[in-house]
Amino acid sequence: MRVMSRPQSDPKPSRPLYTPEERARRDATPWTTVQGVLAPLQFLVFLVSLALVIRFMLTGLGYEAATISIILKTFVLLTIMVTGAIWEKVVFGQYLFAPAFFWEDVVSFAVIALHLAYVWALLAGWPHADQMWIALAAYAAYVVNAAQFLLKLRAARLQSDAQADSGPEVMA
Q1: Contact 66/52 with Cβ under 8 angstroms?
Q2: Rounded to an integer, what distance in angstroms lies between the CA atom of residue 148 and that of residue 144?
Q3: Does 114 map to a domain?
Q4: Using CA atoms, how far apart are residues 39 and 54, in angstroms rounded to an integer?
Q5: 31 within domain boundaries
Q6: What is the mean pLDDT for each group of 10 consecutive residues in the chain (172 residues)?
Q7: Long-range CB contacts (< 8 A, 24+ apart) of 128-136?
Q8: Residue 37: its pLDDT value, please?
Q9: Residue 17 has what DSSP assignment?
Q10: Of 42, 58, 122, 148, which is least surrounded by CB within 10 A?
Q11: Residue 167 domain-assigned?
């Protein structure tokens, strides 16, 4: 029996997440620290708000607390988006849609649109349950976006480790 093997394709080398210059700018800017503080803060606000929204959806209790938490989550989201755009400008030379973070930015805009749709529904006086369904949709999109950024962070660490491993060896 003859086994046919598929020809090996030469994978196209991908652009590293950061050039050495971009990495230096990333490491030097205080906006990296700002992002590093805001991201876990946003996740904490998300978890508390998610619990409050689910509580309301299951019991009908706590509408006001859930509403306040969603508004706070929206505020933190908008803050991290603005500061993230500044970070992107410093590191990559453009405010948004730098090639290294293009899809993260695209999904971020969907997340923002859903959060703002919730605010619109709130101000328009939609039924409480409908408002909360919009918030849950916004939160689902946020989870996808957070996963994108975590994967990108992991890729950056792997790239950094690979560059450290392939650096010049120093003999003592």
Answers
A1: yes
A2: 6
A3: yes
A4: 22
A5: yes
A6: 51 74 95 96 98 98 98 98 97 95 96 98 98 98 95 83 58 39
A7: 128/56, 128/63, 129/57, 131/67, 132/53, 132/56, 132/57, 132/66, 135/49, 135/53, 135/66, 135/70, 136/53, 136/57
A8: 96
A9: S
A10: 58
A11: no
The letter for the amino acid at 88 is E
Mind giving me the DSSP string for 93-159?
A: SSSS--GGGHHHHHHHHHHHHHHHHHHHHHHTT--HHHHHHHHHHHHHHHHHHHHHHHHHHHHHHHH
Which pLDDT score, from 0 to 100, does residue 156 have? Answer: 80
| DSSP conformational letter for 10 | -
Backbone angles phi, psi at 61, to 5 degrees: -100, 150
Most distant CA atoms of the chain, gap in Å: 71
66: amino acid identity, one letter? A
Neighbour tally for 24: CB within 10 Å: 12
Range of the domain at 147: 20-159
